[in-house]
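Notes from hallway chat w/ T.B., transcribed later so I don't forget. T.B. wanted the structure written out for a chain they're using in a teaching module, and asked if we could keep both sequence and structure tokens in one place. Agreed to drop them here.
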Amino acid sequence: MAGISGFRSLAPKTKNVIVAGGLTTFVFGVYFYTMRAVGGIDELQVAIDKFEGDKVQKQAEGSMPSKV
């Protein structure tokens, strides 16, 4: 418990800086962990690209004259 008693003897601004630094570190840690965990594949962009490719292919098939 020596750490807590040492923390109590610090000035209020120093305590605030320590707490703010700890919170900032935690928030950035969670943010970067989350971005790394979900950042592998952008599923929405893959679906959009596939839809656009199918759309272009259907338009190309529709503009070709019939072989009948």
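Follow-up for T.B.: Residues 9-62 form one domain. Might be a good example for the class.
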